[in-house]
Amino acid sequence: MPPRFSIANILVGPQGEEFLRGFIHRSYPKGSLISSGDIDENGILVVMSGRLRMFLISEDRELSLFYFGPGDMFCLHSGCLIEAAEPSELKFTDLATFDKKLRENPQIAWALISILGRALASFLRTIEDLMFHDIKQRIANYFIDHAHSSGRPSPSGVEVEIRLSVEDIAKSIGSSRQATSTAINSLIKDGLLVRQGRGVYAIPAIERLRSFR
Questions:
Q1: Whole-prediction pTM
Q2: Which pLDDT tens digit goes with each residue over 36-46?
Q3: Which stretches make up the HTH crp-type domain (predicted)?
């Protein structure tokens, strides 16, 4: 996945204060629906703190597409739903105001390029997984992606901290909670993953897990 270019530190400084002047501030508890994905919604959100989930929903399943963190910004008319994955502080403005602000602060546009690149990579990975990979392969991809983005060396291999529940992981890979739990336990039984604690796993040999895919 493309590297993250964050402007979170800029947004809390003098330059960010000027950029966000006139934006509307709102707080959302975990689970709050922020956008219904209506293409007629006219606005831009900026994440000041917390974490948002972009997803699609059908009659019997949800599919998580992307997660936004502090410093990320996105439009409200994407056609996807957006909810607060944890308590979040956001800023909102309309498209015309946002366009004017970007022209006055062109360096902040780099954040948009980063977000769009990461979102596109996430969407393409989701499509690839659903089309060509079974549940265990999708789980392997999920852990490998986290190892590359936030893994750290440990005596047991590469340690990965997953901040999501099994149900949320299932939503990220387009599966059911039960099937996801079974697949994770199967990878643990095969020695490809080691559960070290709540939400903490180790990948003893990442090349072996990659070969499994």
A1: 0.69
A2: 877 657 789 99
A3: 133-207
